[in-house]
């Protein structure tokens, strides 16, 4: 069909169907719930009387509104006009059937298939099959029945026969006789259930028809004999998976979409089946869902033709993605480029403003323009539908070009089904088509591309079929057929012995239209039937199979052999199995003759695993992708990295392990890892891709650094205590900067550290904290914040008073390290600045001790930044130079440490106890509490254990004892027996140590008088963005607690990965600063999102509290959506599905994130959990899916019942709930349906709803009992056993539910309760009598009783319309006389009357008005005033016209007023009785009069006549130089005389007289001659008139003038010039209404004039100053 490449929108698929009116699928139930539309809208039709050319446009087969009317066909013409309900328009009193889901044009006839013949809400019976003239839309034949079945699809098989697909098999259709024939055997529905074995899409290729059977698979039917040849892709051979739909691609291949199961939930698999229509071999092509490509949905439960189609121009197939919606809603369209083996996204509806989505079948490809016709809608309940034409030039993140958008002319629930394109062209034999071919010994087969022989401009060549005519003898010699888009001619015999010339007559059929030609085949001696394998080269995965077949003589068989069985094996039937990666050759040898054929087989290796499947970069960024699995075998394999678009991605480095690439510009591209065989580089074993999206780089321009309160300290310095922390915040500008990562910098890292905004004081000193962002060469640094810290050391002590050292330790070269403790704790940075001295006074008489040998290094300062301040003592048993033994001396040696810091000295002492005996004792305090609370005067007895060899005797002899020491005796003292006594409030440390220095322990004593009873967090719930820090605070109660401080515990979270490891990296400081880490280049950072519990305790440990911190994503999650795979609110799952691991929840519903780009959606670990409200009905399990964001939750039904599942997000405590109904089909019950899914009933009128229970058709009688319930008994009750409904509450809504006694299946009806009818009991009028004059009218009002009567319609009549008429109660007097006006009720016929008398009477005038009260009139011109006498029916309406000053104005008897001289006067209109008058003030002006000038010292008042239609005046001031006037200044004044630019006098300009404009011009030179030119301008800036003052002189003594307070810019057009006022220095843009900039220039003066070259039209003048818009105005160029 040759048609214009329209920019129109095409229609779409209704997606749902029914089985009879008594069995509704869930979609139909939802449609019956839709809000009502006005009947005027619902039944509207357009172009009722207009002739339509149906060959120029596109048909839309529409289901229309189910439950209200039959289906229809809408038509969109090439000029963009709609013809709605075209079938009804062209065929009055005829309608289509219910739920028309399929239409096709074949042989000039339009075949429309409906599921039933009549919609439940329709009044006219339509048809299941309508045969229509495609050019006129006139119906030719209608069929209300198709056997015993509902209609589904139609296929034209040849010019005489068609196939009708139904819910119960395929029926033959005689095209010539227009009759429905028999059902093709083997295609029927044997399941006994409507939605179990339907026929779907059908395609003819060559001599076969392929038809999708819901239960059986892909039927292969002989198109000539109409018999079932075989069935392929059977569910039982593919793990129970079925088929959704099929499509024919340009290369003649059939592509089939799979279903997860056979019942029609819409769930799909990430693959497509590739079917060779000649050999019937099948290959699996995987859909790369990891790269964002979505599966192909299907729709068996409410069958439609599916959104799966192909291009006729390119070898590509398209489909609407499954996405997160159900099978009838999608947001994206995808493409598979067959020749390039590439998948990509073509269009994303989420990027179109208005939240549009694709609906149902949704789209088809125009066979002429190759554009996508897309149907958009907002949501199921929204009747706003729109059609769009979209080019197929989209790729990745770039959407296809929208060529046009057209909404439907009227609002309606159209439920679009299928676009159908007119078939305007016929097949034609091509000029280069061969007339003769030769088959000889060298050429045993002729393959001619079919497009070189025959072509149809609006049909796919692959769909053209062939019928040949040869003699019976010749039919035994050669075959002529179409195979894989080629005309194939070959001998039949193995060897031709006699040369023969064979005439062949060819008839080609393209979509029911035929063309014929003749061909001569010369069969030479020595030729023979070819022997080839159906594929010359194939690829198969390891462990998978592919079937090869041979093409040879009829019935010819072959033996099969593999050259390398280690790579691939082949069975005797040609089934090839991949064994390991590599390439080999499969050889087929004919068993009938000595010929062979080969096929190259490549076994694909397993794919590489990259560390990222996709990545987003900004321009200029680089990225490294690594291989993490599926390593390259360097011995036999080679790896190369490629960029799919080198203009977008540049590879900068690569090796067999990784690739580094750089983003050059915005766009989408791929990095491809390609593994080839080293033996044959052309053999690609596998490819793995990483999708890359490059976004525009928006650089950081400014960073603002503030305190946590948002303040900038400026020059003020923030003071810190040592180890103190504070939060700083950095705000990046602009807010949409691409990369907001910043680097925190401390100018003095010895004093301050900074990380993620938390500043920590670690030493003395000052620093400046700044934040920096560096992106390429661009570096931006924030304002600095000054910080300082001064550390004050209070005291030092040794960690224990005595340290023991034994002879055994010396023999083993052992060491001890007495350690110094500083108060307060000293950071390591400060320790490095201290002067540390040690005094270790070893006795001089220990002459042979290594301690007195300076060469032995037996003791030394061991202090360092990592080890703290400590002293090391390490004795040796002998001198390492002389090998002489040292003497070990016993005794106590004091060790003293002196620290000098900040000019002060601090000392501490301990004892080193050297002893012969081993230190083998063990010491332990039995008091377990590390912190003990005491009140003043209270005591605590320390208890201990001291064990070791001979220890008891040591204690008795006091050789070894336990001693005690207090850090502060004023707070807590301790005696020699370990009795602690509290003295005063404070904290003291009690140290217990063994006298030999072997062991020591400490206990902290808190002395106080008031302990904590409660800890209250400042905020119970805190929310913080990922990567930010927040200050938590808590208060200790009571207020007078001795220890009011708190201690914070590490935040905890219960979120785990699938492998069980805890995620979430939050921390909290001693000061209560909570923080999480964030880096944009760290994918796992988003795992830190979640809920954290933070415990806080009082310092004394007596009380605690808790708060919750929610860490939110950079784009916080607001809500979760749970979208069913069907359309019911409830989800049903049967107990028979109780498999051990359960069924993944994604089979039933999808979890969506709101907004869709929420940061949490990118998390690599569990993002939400699913729990069951009742685990006895439904359990939730988990399934290992790896540590990815694909949650592995499964549903495990346990018993019949109803429960709810709760989906809880990891972020922000977001939850969503879904109802789950567990059914049990083991009882033989399959479901229940109601006769209505929505009803409006009257209160007080009981009713019942019919129902049907569907059972297994096995001859067994089942209990079909149902129970009833109402969701709101206050609205309507229902008897549980009988189902009798009693409506109660008017205006209420409830859901009536029927539940099967066995199986728990359910059906619902939404019930709306309205008031019952109230009857009329009477009517009365507000007046019983009425008197009117002719022409006078009065309103009568009728009151119906009772007030709440249902029908208040009435009719009005006058018994004598010559006297008075009445319409809707309005009575109008006509002529003198009397009549009766009567009102009658429609309900009951009650009447009331009013006697109307019409009398002629004098009606005096009560007033008069003029159409104008004031007017300006140019001298010498006239206007007409109109007078109105009140009332309108006054008897005498004569008007007398007068002038108050006849020298100024004259007025005639008709109200025409003429201006005579300048001045002001009144026009007076007077009623004929002289009692009433009206006045209009007329100001006469003379625009030609010379302006008057009142000159002052340095100013002048210019007075001139107002000009009609003048919007403003331009005043040009000329100053005389000698006798020559020179333009000095220019002003613009409004029509009141106010100057809106220039200078203005402090004195207001006086008005000279009425009708004049007075403009006060200031800033004049004294004693100077001037004149002024006044130009009157209209709204568009065009000149109306010009006047010039006489020259005038200013006075000699100037007075002060002031600058105008507000100079306003302006723009206007005059004399083809653009005039800009007060815009000097701005850049001016002249933009037309299409957004195109037509001129750019710089404004050079305050009164700028620029000649215009633009065409006439409306333009926007925009002035930009300092890179911001300063002024904008619309102007018109004429």
Automatic annotation (TrEMBL):
Keywords: Signal. Residues 1-20 form the signal peptide. Residues 527-600, 604-685, 699-783, 919-1001, 1228-1310, 1319-1395, 1404-1481 form the BIG2 domain. Pfam families: Big_2 (PF02368), DUF5074 (PF16819). This is DUF5074 domain-containing protein. It comes from Parabacteroides distasonis.
């Amino acid at each position: 069909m040759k048609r214009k490449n329209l920019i129109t929108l095409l229609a779409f698929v209704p997606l749902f169907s029914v089985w009879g009116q008594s069995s509704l699928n869930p979609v139909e139930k939802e449609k019956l719930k839709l809000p009502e539309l006005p009947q005027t809208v619902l039944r509207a039709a357009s172009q009722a009387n207009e002739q339509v050319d149906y060959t120029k446009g596109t048909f839309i087969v529409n289901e229309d509104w189910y439950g209200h009317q039959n289906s229809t066909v809408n038509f969109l013409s090439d000029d963009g006009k709609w013809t709605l309900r075209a079938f009804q328009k062209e065929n009055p009193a005829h309608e289509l059937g219910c739920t028309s889901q399929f239409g096709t044009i074949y042989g000039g006839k339009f075949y429309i298939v409906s599921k039933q013949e009549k919609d439940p809400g329709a009044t006219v019976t339509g048809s299941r099959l309508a045969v229509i003239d495609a050019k006129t839309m006139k119906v030719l034949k209608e069929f209300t029945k198709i056997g015993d079945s509902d209609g589904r699809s139609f296929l034209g098989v040849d010019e005489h026969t068609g196939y009708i697909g139904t819910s119960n098999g395929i029926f033959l259709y005689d095209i010539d006789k227009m009759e429905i024939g028999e059902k093709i055997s083997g295609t029927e529905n044997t399941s006994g259930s409507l939605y179990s074995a339907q026929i779907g899409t059908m395609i003819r290729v060559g001599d076969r028809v392929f038809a999708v059977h819901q239960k059986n698979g892909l039927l292969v039917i002989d198109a000539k004999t109409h018999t079932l040849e075989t069935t392929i892709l059977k569910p039982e051979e593919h793990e129970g998976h079925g088929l959704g739909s099929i499509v024919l691609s340009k290369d003649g291949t059939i592509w089939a979409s799979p279903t997860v199961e056979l019942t029609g939930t819409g769930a799909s698999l990430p693959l497509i089946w590739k079917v060779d229509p000649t050999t019937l071999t099948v290959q699996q092509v995987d859909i790369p869902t990891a790269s964002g490509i979505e599966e192909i949905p299907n729709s068996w439960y409410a069958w439609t033709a599916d959104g799966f189609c192909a291009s006729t121009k390119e070898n590509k197939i398209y489909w609407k993605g499954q996405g997160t919606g159900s099978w009838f809603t999608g947001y994206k369209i995808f493409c598979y480029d067959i020749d390039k083996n590439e998948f990509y996204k073509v269009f994303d509806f989420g990027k179109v403003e208005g939240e549009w989505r694709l609906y149902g079948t949704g789209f088809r490809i125009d066979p002429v323009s190759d554009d996508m016709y897309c149907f958009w809608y907002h949501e199921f309940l929204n009747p706003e539908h729109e059609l769009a034409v979209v080019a197929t030039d989209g790729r990745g993140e770039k959407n296809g070009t929208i060529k046009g958008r057209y909404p439907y002319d009227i609002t309606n629930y159209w439920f679009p089904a299928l676009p159908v394109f007119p078939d305007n062209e016929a097949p034609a034999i091509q000029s280069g088509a061969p007339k003769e071919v030769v088959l000889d010994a060298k050429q045993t087969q002729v393959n001619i591309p079919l497009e070189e022989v025959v072509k149809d401009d609006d049909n796919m060549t692959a769909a053209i079929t062939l019928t040949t005519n040869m003699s019976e003898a010749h039919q035994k010699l050669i075959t002529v057929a179409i195979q894989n888009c080629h005309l194939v001619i070959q001998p039949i015999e193995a060897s031709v012995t006699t040369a023969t010339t064979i005439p062949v007559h060819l008839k080609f059929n393209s979509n029911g239209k035929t063309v014929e030609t003749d061909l001569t085949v010369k069969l030479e001696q020595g030729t023979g039937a070819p022997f080839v394998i159906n594929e010359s080269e194939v690829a198969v995965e390891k462990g998978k199979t592919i079937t090869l077949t041979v093409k040879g003589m009829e019935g010819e068989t072959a033996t099969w052999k593999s050259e390398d069985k280690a790579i691939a094996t082949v069975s005797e039937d040609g089934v090839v199995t991949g064994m390991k990666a590599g390439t080999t050759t499969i050889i087929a040898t004919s068993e009938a003759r000595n010929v062979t054929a080969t096929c190259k087989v490549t076994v694909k290796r397993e794919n590489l695993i990259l560390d990222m499947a996709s990545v987003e970069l900004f321009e200029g960024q680089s990225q490294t992708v690594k291989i993490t699995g599926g390593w390259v075998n360097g011995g036999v394999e080679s790896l190369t990295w490629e960029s799919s678009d080198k203009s977008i991605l540049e590879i900068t480095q690569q090796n067999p392990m990784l690739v580094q690439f750089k983003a050059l510009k915005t766009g989408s591209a791929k990095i491809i890892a390609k593994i080839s065989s080293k033996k044959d580089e052309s053999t690609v074993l596998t490819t793995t891709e990483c999708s890359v999206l490059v976004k525009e780089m928006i650089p950081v321009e400014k960073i603002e650094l503030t305190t946590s309160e948002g303040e900038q300290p400026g020059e003020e310095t923030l003071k810190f205590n040592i180890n103190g922390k504070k939060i700083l915040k950095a705000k990046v500008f602009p807010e949409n900067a691409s990369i907001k990562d910043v680097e925190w910098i401390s100018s003095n890292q010895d004093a301050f550290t900074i990380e993620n905004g938390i500043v920590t004081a670690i030493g003395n000193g000052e620093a400046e904290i700044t934040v920096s962002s560096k992106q390429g060469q661009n570096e931006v640094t924030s304002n600095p914040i000054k910080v300082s810290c001064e550390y004050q050391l209070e005291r030092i002590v040794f960690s224990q008073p005595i340290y023991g050292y034994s002879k055994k330790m010396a023999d083993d070269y052992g060491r001890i390290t007495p350690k110094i403790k500083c108060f307060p704790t000293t950071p390591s940075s400060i320790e490095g600045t201290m002067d540390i001295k040690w005094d270790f006074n070893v006795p001089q008489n220990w002459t042979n001790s290594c301690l007195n040998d300076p060469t032995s290094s037996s003791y030394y300062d061991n202090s360092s930044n990592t080890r703290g301040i400590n002293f090391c003592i390490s004795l040796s048993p002998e001198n390492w130079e002389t090998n002489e033994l040292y003497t070990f001396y016993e005794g106590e040696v004091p060790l003293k440490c002196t620290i000098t810091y900040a000019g002060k000295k601090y000392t501490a002492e301990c004892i080193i106890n050297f002893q012969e005996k081993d230190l083998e004792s063990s010491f332990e305090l039995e008091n377990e509490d590390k912190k003990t609370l005491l009140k003043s005067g209270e005591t605590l007895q320390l208890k201990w254990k001291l064990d070791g060899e001979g220890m008891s005797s040591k204690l008795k002899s006091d050789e070894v004892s336990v001693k005690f020491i207090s850090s502060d005796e004023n707070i807590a003292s301790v005696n020699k027996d370990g009795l602690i006594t509290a003295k005063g409030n404070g904290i003291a440390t009690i140290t217990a140590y063994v006298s030999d220095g072997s062991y020591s322990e400490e206990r902290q004593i808190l002395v106080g008088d008031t302990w904590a009873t409660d800890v209250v967090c400042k905020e119970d719930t805190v929310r913080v963005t990922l990567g930010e820090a927040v200050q938590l605070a808590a208060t200790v109660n009571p207020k007078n607690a001795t220890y009011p401080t708190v201690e914070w515990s590490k935040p905890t979270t219960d979120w785990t990965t699938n492998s069980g490891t805890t995620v979430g990296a939050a921390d909290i400081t001693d000061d209560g600063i909570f923080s999480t880490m964030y880096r944009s280049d760290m994918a796992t950072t988003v795992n830190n999102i979640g809920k954290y519990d933070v415990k806080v305790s009082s310092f004394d440990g007596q009380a605690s509290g808790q708060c919750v911190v929610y860490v939110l994503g950079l784009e916080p999650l607001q809500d979760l959506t749970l979208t069913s795979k069907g359309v019911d609110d409830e989800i049903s799952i049967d107990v028979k599905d109780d498999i051990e691991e359960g069924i993944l929840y994604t089979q039933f519903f999808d979890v969506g994130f709101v907004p869709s780009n929420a940061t949490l959606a990118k998390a690599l670990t569990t993002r939400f959990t699913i729990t069951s409200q009742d685990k006895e009905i439904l359990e939730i399990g988990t399934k290992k899916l790896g540590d990815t964001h694909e949650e592995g939750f499964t549903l495990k039904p346990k018993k019949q019942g109803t429960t709810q599942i709760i989906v809880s997000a990891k972020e922000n405590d977001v939850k969503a709930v879904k109802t789950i109904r567990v059914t049990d089909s083991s009882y033989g019950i399959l479901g229940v349906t109601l006769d209505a899914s929505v009803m409006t009933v009257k209160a007080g009128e009981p009713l019942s709803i019919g129902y049907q229970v569907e059972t297994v058709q096995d001859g067994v009688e089942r209990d079909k009992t149902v129970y009833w319930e109402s969701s709101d008994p206050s609205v309507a009750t229902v008897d549980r056993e009988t189902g009798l409904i009693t409506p109660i509450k008017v205006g209420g809504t409830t859901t009536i539910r029927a539940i099967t006694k066995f199986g728990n299946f359910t059906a619902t009806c939404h019930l709306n309760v309205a008031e019952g009818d109230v009857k009329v009991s009477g009517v009365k009028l507000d007046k019983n009598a009425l008197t009117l004059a002719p022409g006078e009218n009065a309103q009568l009002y009728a009151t119906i009783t009772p007030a709440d009567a249902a029908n208040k319609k009435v009719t009005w009549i006058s018994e004598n319309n010559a006297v008075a008429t009445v319409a809707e109660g309005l009575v109008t007097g006509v002529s003198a006389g009397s009549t009766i006006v009567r009102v009658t009720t429609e309900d009951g016929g009650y009447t009331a009357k009013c006697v109307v008398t019409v009398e002629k009477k004098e009606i005096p005038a009560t007033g008069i008005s003029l159409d104008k009260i004031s007017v300006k009139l140019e001298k010498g011109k006239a206007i007409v005033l109109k007078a109105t006498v009140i009332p309108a029916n006054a008897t005498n309406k004569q008007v007398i016209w007068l002038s108050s000053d006849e020298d100024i104005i004259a007025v005639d008897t008709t109200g025409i007023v003429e201006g005579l001289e300048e001045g002001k006067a009144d026009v007076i209109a007077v009623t004929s009785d002289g009692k009433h008058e009206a006045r209009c003030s007329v100001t006469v002006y003379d625009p030609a009069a010379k302006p008057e000038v009142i000159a002052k010292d340095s100013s002048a008042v210019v007075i001139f006549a107002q000009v009609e239609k003048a919007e403003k005046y331009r005043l040009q001031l000329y100053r005389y130089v000698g006798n020559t006037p020179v333009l000095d200044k220019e002003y613009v004044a409004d029509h009141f005389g106010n100057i809106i630019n220039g200078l203005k006098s402090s004195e207001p300009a006086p008005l000279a007289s009425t009708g004049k404009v007075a403009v006060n011009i200031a800033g004049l030179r004294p004693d100077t001659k001037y004149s002024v030119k006044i130009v009157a301008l209209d709204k568009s800036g065009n000149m109306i008139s010009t006047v010039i003052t006489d020259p005038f002189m200013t006075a000699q003594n100037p007075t002060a003038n002031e600058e105008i307070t507000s100079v306003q810019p302006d723009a206007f057009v005059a004399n083809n010039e653009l005039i800009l006022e007060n815009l000097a220095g701005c850049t001016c843009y002249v933009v037309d209404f299409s957004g195109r900039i037509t001129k750019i220039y710089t404004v050079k003066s305050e009164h700028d004039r620029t000649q215009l070259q633009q065409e006439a039209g409306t333009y926007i003048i925009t002035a930009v100053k300092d890179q911001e818009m300063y002024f904008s105005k619309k102007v018109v160029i004429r």
